[in-house]
Amino acid sequence: METDDTAVRAQKARETCPFLTAKQTAYHLGIAYLTLKSMRERGRGPRCRLHGTTWRYHIDDIEAWSKAHMRGGQHG
């Protein structure tokens, strides 16, 4: 189940700038930046796009990827 804090942070991101950097995305997901980079290189992480020279992740894509990878417990 999504915590209130996560929902609030996601909503703030949508209202201000829905595109997060790779470092912000890794922090949001609670994983190491290098893990996210490796996942991107192997085509296994959240959808992302190259804006200039910086990889950006849209908050909706991050949340969709995260929800698609839920395991166990109750979710709904």
TrEMBL record:
GO terms for molecular function: DNA binding. InterPro entries: DNA-bd_dom_put_sf (IPR009061), HTH_17 (IPR041657). Signal peptide: none annotated. Residues 19-65 form the Helix-turn-helix domain. Pfam families: HTH_17 (PF12728). Keywords: DNA-binding, Plasmid. SUPFAM superfamilies: Putative DNA-binding domain (SSF46955). The keyword DNA-binding applies. This is DNA-binding protein. It comes from Sphingomonas paeninsulae.
